[in-house]
Prior knowledge:
Blueprint: H1 8-17, E1 30-31, E2 38-44, E3 64-69, E4 74-76, E5 81-85, H2 96-103, E6 107-115, E7 123-124, E8 129-133, E9 154-155, E10 170-171, E11 173-177, E12 193-198, H3 202-206, E13 209-211, E14 222-226, E15 230-237, E16 258-259, E17 267-270, E18 272-275, E19 280-282, H4 288-291, E20 292-295, E21 306-313, E22 318-323, E23 326-328, E24 334-339, E25 348-353, E26 357-358, E27 361-366, E28 370-377, E29 391-393, E30 399-400, E31 405-412, E32 417-421, H5 423-426, E33 432-433, E34 440-446, H6 447-456, E35 466-468, E36 480-482, H7 484-487, E37 491-492, E38 505-509, E39 512-516
Parallel strand pairs: 1-4, 8-9, 9-10, 15-16, 36-39
Antiparallel strand pairs: 2-3, 2-17, 3-8, 4-7, 5-6, 5-12, 6-11, 6-14, 12-15, 13-14, 17-20, 18-19, 21-28, 22-27, 23-26, 23-28, 24-25, 24-27, 29-34, 30-33, 31-32, 31-34, 32-35, 37-38, 38-39
Amino acid sequence: MIKTSTLSACVSAIAVLGMACVATEASAKIYAPEKGKVVISKIYYGGTPKAESSTGKNYLDGQYIEIYNQSSDTLDLGGLYIGNGEADSNTLMWNISRIKEAYNDSTITMKQIFRIPSCSKSILAPGASIVICNSAMDHTAISSYESDLSGADFEVRDIKGKKTNHADVDSLQLTYTAYSTVTYMLLSQAGPLHLSLFSATDDEIAALQDTYAYGKETGNVYKRVPAKYVIDGIELMNKNYSDAEYKHLYDTIDAGYQICASYSGETYYRKSARLLTNRIVLADTDNSTNDLAVSTTIRPREYVSEIDSTVVIPATGHLAINVSSNFRTSADVMVSSINATAKSTALNYLNHQGDSVFMYGSVILTAQPGEYTLHFTTDSIQAKFNSTVVYWLDQTPGVAYRKNRMLYRFVNNADSVGFVRDETYAADNYTSCALGEGQHLYLPLNTTAVGNIATTLGTTQEALSFIPWTGPVAETTAIEQVNADAATSVAVNLAGMPVGADYKGFVIVNGKKAIVKK
Length: 518
């Protein structure tokens, strides 16, 4: 059932197709792609139905795929392979259970393999993508579903001349095809489709083993690509194959799938997960069910640049969050960041309120308890916080800070709102710390500032285990009545200054607004 063959047929095909790519010099700042850095970001393979097509026929020539660099590095995709998976009928296909039975989950069956040539078009900046199509022309006259692909980076040549090709567009290299008459990218919208990006050496490509359709010893010859070579994969299915039984990709590559109807005009694209200042980071949980969305209007190189997220501000009226992109809030939410220098005698609250865009980072939201929407965007910043020293630290060990720092962790509960000193790291003026489970907002204060703030609050540096919250308080937060004795030692006025037993009026006690009366 298994045999080894040479790639002489595909070498001949490459010679016929030619390569327009011009090689570029390597750079020390350009990196090779690897898992998590580059993804298949978009697939348009449904095509236009004849009812919507100006040709009067079902139209597939506008199919394309897109590959996206969501890392912070400039990548050279030259030499990266694109595997177009086998898509036989359900009785002949190499689904997961059959692969497990025959090959112990080690391979993926490919009907076509393409190679991205090394050239200027293969160099991908952070947040950039390459578009690969069968026909690099403007298809928009066909229907509203189609796109202008005249600016595509690579085109797959059709030796039969059924597709319109352009000599001035760089050619994607055909490394293998199971069909001698099909050299273009055969995106099977009538059945399951799985595409993979994989990396392999020339020797590894030459050593790829062959197989036939499941249960056959003659017919089309497919290539078996080791799963360990794959750095990204996406699986789509036609409605006639909408069952996990027909999956070809292992969960480590794509644990889910999406359904795409034939001649639907649908484009499957990755959702946006995070919006950074210089790029969008796309969803990549290795599960197409969660990561992909569908559109009939999205176009090449377009991605969702806005995300809405719901947050819940608890009963205390304060919520600490860490955001990775610019965001807007409603006018009834106050956004605060905090800093303190060696000269500070109190925490400095940097506050902004209203429908503005903020710089990404760690902030504290203040509002009436309830649900609120944060609107994340890649828009330019209208207002931002500077010189913040509030940090969001997670459970990763070894987070480094300079010497002479004391960690104060933000607490937000029914008893108090403020910053509690983490004694584990305060004593030795640590240079690194290993945090426990969960995520917390920390103030790494220098020891001079801690001493000054302690003096302001009428205590010593050694005894300053808690710094009360003296920043914005939600207007709807309940105002308690306390007597003057209860206000001493832990109470400060609304300016952040400590008050004595004879003080009357509004105070902050353990992070809560109160009023002192005789």
